[in-house]
Amino acid sequence: MRITSIFYVIVLLSLYSTIINAAPATSAVPTLEKRQETEQDPDFNTNIFTSFKPLEVTASPITREYTLTLAKAELAPDGFSRQVWTSNGQYPGPMIRANKGDQIVIHVQNNLGDFTTIHWHGIFQRGTTFYDGVAGQTQCLIATGTTFTYNFTAGEQYGTYWWHSHFRSQYVDGLRGALIIHDPKDPYLNDYDEEFVMTLSDWHHEESESLVNKRMAKGYDGFNVN
Ligand SMILES: [Cu+2]
Fold first, then answer.
1. Is the pLDDT higher at 34 or at 29?
2. What is the whole-number distance in angstroms between the Cα of residue 1 and the centre of ligand 1?
3. Ligand 1 centroid from CA 122, angstroms
4. Mind listing the pLDDT tens digit for each residue in 161-196?
5. Does position 81 have pLDDT exceeding 90, yes or no?
6. Residue range 135-160, pLDDT digits in tens
7. From start to end of the chain, where are the E strands?
8. CATH no. for residue 49?
């Protein structure tokens, strides 16, 4: 089957498919093998026009290590230039991927000039609630100029998730990306040739802080920010 439309892409997203070609013998004991994903790694960067390459399948879970450097930058995602809250200089942020059972280590370097936290949306965080990334509830804010390291496993979870800032409305301004946990035993493995990830969102020409102020102002009627 060839992917010929956005519809199929969305269907694939909902089926959290992969193009991994082998089903490994999995071990319950994680190894300490580490892999550092870099900005040069084409799989680490988000390019919706490039299909996935298969993620290596390991005999037992490994640790996958990522670095997200957060900073504001002048970008024009829809042709209109504005200040965008970027991760590793891009918007949407890099796609973070792992195989089922892997340990995921993510160093968040905050160069925003503002506080932040990053939440891993949909991940249960069993035993690691302190890495859930909810500002003021599960962790203190990450101060600008500092690094905070998240370290968790998705356990038995797999599928299409996303990550985003969990402080104020920062993700509206760009701090978000896809988080994909592959199942090497994907039941749809033979039903498609290629896989793409496409993120859809509202996008505003005004920064979210002023949008939120309008939304919260007395007498507000009709304009909505989620
Ligand atoms: Cu979320």
1. 34
2. 32
3. 7
4. 999 999 999 999 999 999 999 998 888 878 888 888
5. yes
6. 999 999 999 999 999 999 999 999 99
7. 34-36, 63-75, 82-87, 96-99, 103-110, 118-121, 147-153, 159-165, 176-182
8. 2.60.40.420
CA of 83 to the centre of ligand 1 (A): 22
210 CB-near residues (< 8 Å, 6+ apart): none
User: Which residue would you say has higher pLDDT here, 28 or 101?
Assistant: 101
Q: Is residue 66 part of a domain?
A: yes
Ligand 1 centroid, distance to 130 Cα (angstroms):
15
Which residues, in sequence order, are CB contacts of 23 under 8 Å at separation 6+?
57, 184, 185
DSSP 141: P
Q: How far is ligand 1, taken at its centre, from the CA of residue 88, in Å?
A: 20
The total number of structural domains that make up the chain: 1
Tell me how far the alpha carbon of residue 119 lies from the centroid of ligand 1, in angstroms.
6
2 is written with which tokens?
């060839």
Around ion ligand 1, which residues have CB less than 5 A away?
Answer: 121
Residue 192: the pLDDT is: 82
- Residue-range definition of the domain harbouring residue 199: 6-216
In a domain, 136, yes or no: yes
Residue 223 within any structural domain of the chain: no
Which pLDDT does position 143 carry in this prediction?
98
Exposed/middle/buried for 167, CB within 10 Å: 0-12, 13-18, 19+?
Answer: buried
State the distance from the centre of ligand 1 to the C-alpha of 92, rounded, in angstroms. 15
Task: Evaluate whether residue 225 is within a structural domain.
Answer: no
